[in-house]
Amino acid sequence: MHRARGLWRAGVPAALGGSRAVSGGPGGGLGPEAEADPALLRASSPELARRLRGLALVRGGFVSDGEAAELLREVEPGLRRGRYQSDHWDRAITGYRETERGLRGGAGRALLLRVTPAFPPRRPPRPSAHVLDLLPEGSVGPHVDSVKFCGCTIAGVSLLSPSVLRLRSLRDPQDWLELLLEPGSLYVLRDASGPSQRPPSVY
After folding, report:
1. Where does the secretion signal sit in this chain (predicted)?
2. Which tens digits make up the pLDDT trace of 158-187?
3. For residue 31, what pLDDT band results from cuts at 50, 70 and 90?
């Protein structure tokens, strides 16, 4: 988590992300039937938007500025121990540092409680978070996330930097979805095919 000014650049297809975000699952009213804030989602066609209803959600203002600051204080110590790296193992990320942190502090525990309803009933998120911090010149390029690491439910909270998350279909490249992630917003991505588990993350 750092001073990145837009982890996702407009027009860049990618699997998931959001600068300075905590991933877990959405709370209060963010079950599979919940609707996203329409202004925060853009689809390549109305038909695609209908197909993805309930599978891709964005909620603005999910965490307050104060909550975001407390979450940052809880995860920052793990980041300070790492150096910024120029290249990720899969070459998808540049100018970054990352860590995995347990969400044991007050803000982290509260967030987990609020996001757990987004996950399948018997597959709650693990009480830890993947934290990704980009330099202002850092970037996340197009990539495909492994189901082994992502499972069927991904959720994240953008804490500091606005970003655009663009998803593009591998089967039908003309189909794309953009998630507009302002600081404090929550996004949730679900696979309609069945339950799995993904640990919470901070991006």
Report:
1. none
2. 887 888 889 999 889 999 999 999 999 999
3. low
User: What are the residue boundaries of the structural domains of the chain, listed by start?
Assistant: 38-202
Looking at the chain, the number of H-run helices and the number of E-run strands are: 4, 9
Say which CATH class 38-202 falls into. mainly beta
- Closest alpha carbon to 131 in 102, 167, 88, 107: 102
Segment (H or E) for 202: strand 201-202
Q: Please, which contacts does 107-111 make with residues 24 or more away whose CB atoms are closer than 8 Å? A: 107/67, 107/70, 107/71, 107/73, 107/74, 108/22, 108/71, 108/74, 108/75, 110/67, 111/22, 111/24, 111/63, 111/67, 111/71, 111/157
Q: How far apart are CA 140 and CA 125, in angstroms?
A: 24
CA 139 to chain centre: 15
**Residue that is written with structure tokens 């949730």 in the block:** 188
Give, as one character, the DSSP assignment of residue 126: P
Pairing state between β 128-140 and 201-202 = parallel
DSSP class per residue in 127-169: SEEEEEEEEEEEEE-S----HHHHTTEEEEEB-S--EEEEEE-
Residue with tokens 């917003």: 185
What would you report as the CA-atom Rg of the chain, rounded to the nearest whole angstrom? 15
Q: Tell me the CA end-to-end span of the chain in Å, nearest whole number.
A: 7
